[in-house]
């Protein structure tokens, strides 16, 4: 065997491949000469004679012998091709094959012994000695795959990755499905940061053995992590280089802007260049560190920014300043705070909103919007003169349709923060504002409408604010107007607004208010209509509103029962989600309590009350309590108790009536239902007795009498 450095040589590679081809040819000839088919034997014999007579055969054999040391079939004793004896040739061929096999066995034993010595050296950490032993083994048996992979592993330990890859390639020539070769080669490529080649090696492992999927995934994850680490380091280096250049450029531009007695267009141009550099986290930091927010100390810049009546050049400079501040403050609360700390900025921003120049107003609103995005930003704005801001913002809302949504959104954010900070001082204003926003729905500003209602729904979580909103008749009237609009299928853009209004109503309904009482029936009727809506969120919230509002008005109950609410609730209990089902059973409980028609409709739609029995198996105590209450109401109807014979109702009610539920109503409602069941149909007592529940039944009767 040639030294390791020569294994990659093209001549050695060609010689090795030629050697393997000739071994295959000899094997095929032997099989042909031994074939029982005479035609095959004759063909093999002719091919053998032909090869022996080829003039290049001896030369080729001689060339091969110099490198590979092959054993050749001795044909010197043959007088000529015509005198070759077939039997003698076959015997010589077989003898040669046996000699080859013996030599291979002997070389394999030597190679295995050297492999073991190499393994011992490897385990001892002497990787150089291990490589030497594996190489000696390959001199004995050059096509032994294990020696190549073991030596590749040793090369890997010594960080000789190219040699490891070469050995793995030789191993794959010996065995194309060698998993170890692909594994080590993948590791070597990874060390060389050849990420695509490394992945390909691991992918080949899975193709060979799909059971190695877990190992493959671990290896691919390792490649991904290493690739990310390298890229992060490269990016960090690039950013550091770019940051150094940006810091220098920012410093130079700020110096130019601070220089006095320049033309106004000179400052505008440099501010625009500065904006391009500041538009990232690194640039924002350098801008702040180089005192960029003191830019208004330049009298020319400050004069243009604060001028009441601005020339075209001053407008350009003012817009450039606003864009610069947007770039410096985007997502950066430290910079936002520093900007508002500049006296001229805090006083001039409200004036810019009302200056009448659309470009300045638009960019000012965009800057304010950055503050409205976060709670801390909202708090910063609240510390300003908010009444002046609100006055200006409302004027803009009415005057500039093109960007009214953004103005309203920011205004609502600031109002919300003010109400959170100052208690109830703005409660009345908030109530008036919600009325104004709701009424504006006809003006085509649905995005602002939904945004405003959602914000106020969150604000209504405050107890005092919620109480004041609940007292406003104009608020409830506006809510009803918006709910009416949802019935127009050609206006799907109102769905988001209706969803928000229903959420707001849900927040306000727990408040005790005489004003709410006046609107229970119309609200119930609107929500009943919304139960047919295609939007599941609207259906759920409409059901939720019904579950709260109906208890305040028997008249409302009768209206919705006539409208088919019982059938709707049963449908939701069968196919609805957990939240919708919770609202639905609560609504049924309210309806069956005050309406005999509701009880009759429930029994008509579900004769064996299977829906209620299923709900009694729920883990949720509120659901169980409401289901038991509905059942107790239905048991007042003739035939209802008899319809439950043979069901699991007794077992379920006994479990809840005598159980350890945290909510007392679960026990009481189950006890009442059990008592009424046995009074209405005495045959149920037999089941109670079989379940040893007579003691529970006796205790239940007190609830039945009191009910």
Automatic annotation (TrEMBL):
TPR repeat feature ranges: 179-212
Entry keywords, A to Z: TPR repeat
Taxonomic superkingdom: Eukaryota
Keyword Ligase: no
GO terms for cellular component: centrosome; cytoplasm
This protein's encoding gene: Ttc12
Name this polypeptide is given: TTC12 protein
Single GO BP term: sperm axoneme assembly
Biased composition (Basic and acidic residues): 48-65
Region (Disordered): 48-68
């Amino acid at each position: 065997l040639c030294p390791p450095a020569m294994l990659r040589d093209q001549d050695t590679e060609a010689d090795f491949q030629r050697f393997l081809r000739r071994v295959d040819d000899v094997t095929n000839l032997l099989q042909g000469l031994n074939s029982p088919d005479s035609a095959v034997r004759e063909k093999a014999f002719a091919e053998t004679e032909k090869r022996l007579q080829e003039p290049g055969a001896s030369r080729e054999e001689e060339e091969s012998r110099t490198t590979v040391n092959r054993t050749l079939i001795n044909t010197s004793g043959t007088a000529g091709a015509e005198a070759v004896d077939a039997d003698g040739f076959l015997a010589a061929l077989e003898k040669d094959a046996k000699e080859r096999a013996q030599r291979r066995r002997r070389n394999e034993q030597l190679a295995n012994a050297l492999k073991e010595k190499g393994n011992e050296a490897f385990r001892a950490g002497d990787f150089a000695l291990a490589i030497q032993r594996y190489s000696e083994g390959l001199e004995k048996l050059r096509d032994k795959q294990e020696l190549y992979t073991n030596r590749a592993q040793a090369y890997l330990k010594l960080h000789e990755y190219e040699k490891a890859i070469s050995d793995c390639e030789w191993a794959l020539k010996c065995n194309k499905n060698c998993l170890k070769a692909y594994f080590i080669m993948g590791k070597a490529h990874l060390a060389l940061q050849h990420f695509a080649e490394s992945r390909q090696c691991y992918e080949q492992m899975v193709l060979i053995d799909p059971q190695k999927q877990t190992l493959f995934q671990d290896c691919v994850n390792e490649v991904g992590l290493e690739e990310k680490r390298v890229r992060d380091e490269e990016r960090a280096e690039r950013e550091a280089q770019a940051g150094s250049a940006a810091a220098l450029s920012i410093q130079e531009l700020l110096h130019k802007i601070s220089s006095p007695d320049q033309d106004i267009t000179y400052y505008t141009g440099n501010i625009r260049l500065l904006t391009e550099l500041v538009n990232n986290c690194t640039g924002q930091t350098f801008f702040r560190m180089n005192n960029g927010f003191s830019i208004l100390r330049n009298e020319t810049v400050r004069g243009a920014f604060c001028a009441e009546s601005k020339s075209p050049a001053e407008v350009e400079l003012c817009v450039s300043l606003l864009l610069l501040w947007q770039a410096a403050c985007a997502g950066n609360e430290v910079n936002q705070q520093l900007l508002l700390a500049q006296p001229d900025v805090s006083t001039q921003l409200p004036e810019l909103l009302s200056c009448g120049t659309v470009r300045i107003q638009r960019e000012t609103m965009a800057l304010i919007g950055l503050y409205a995005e976060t709670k801390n930003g909202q708090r910063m704005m609240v510390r300003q003169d908010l009444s002046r801001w609100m006055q200006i913002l409302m004027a803009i809302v009415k005057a500039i349709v093109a960007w009214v949504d953004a103005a309203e959104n920011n205004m609502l954010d600031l109002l919300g923060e003010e109400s959170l900070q100052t208690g109830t001082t703005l409660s009345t204003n908030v109530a008036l504002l919600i009325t104004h926003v709701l009424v504006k729905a006809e003006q085509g500003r649905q995005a602002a409408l939904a945004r405003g209602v959602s914000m106020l729904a969150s604000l209504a979580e405050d107890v005092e604010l919620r109480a004041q909103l609940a007292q406003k008749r104009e608020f409830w009237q506006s809510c009803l107007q918006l709910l009416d609009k949802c019935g127009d299928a050609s206006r799907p853009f109102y769905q988001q607004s209706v969803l928000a209004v229903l959420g707001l109503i849900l927040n306000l309904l727990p408040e005790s208010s005489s004003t709410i009482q006046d609107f229970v029936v119309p609200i119930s009727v609107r929500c009943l209509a919304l139960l047919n809506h295609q939007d599941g969120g609207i259906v759920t919230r409409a059901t939720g509103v019904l579950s709260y509002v109906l208890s305040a008005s028997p008249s409302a109950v009768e209206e919705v029962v006539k409208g088919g609410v019982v059938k709707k609730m049963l449908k939701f209990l069968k196919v609805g989600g957990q939240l919708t089902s919770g609202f639905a059973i609560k609504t049924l409980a309210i309806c069956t309590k005050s309406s005999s028609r509701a009880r009759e409709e429930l029994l008509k739609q579900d004769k064996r009350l299977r829906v209620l029995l299923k709900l009694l198996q729920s883990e949720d105590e509120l659901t169980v309590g409401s289901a038991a209450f509905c059942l107790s109401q239905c048991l007042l109807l003739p035939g209802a108790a008899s319809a439950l014979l043979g069901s699991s109702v007794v077992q379920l009610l006994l479990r809840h009536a005598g159980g350890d539920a945290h909510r007392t109503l679960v026990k009481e409602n189950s006890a009442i239902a059990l008592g009424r069941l046995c009074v209405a149909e005495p045959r149920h007592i037999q089941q109670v007795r079989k379940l040893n529940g007579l003691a529970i039944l006796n205790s239940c009767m007190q609830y039945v009498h009191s009910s």
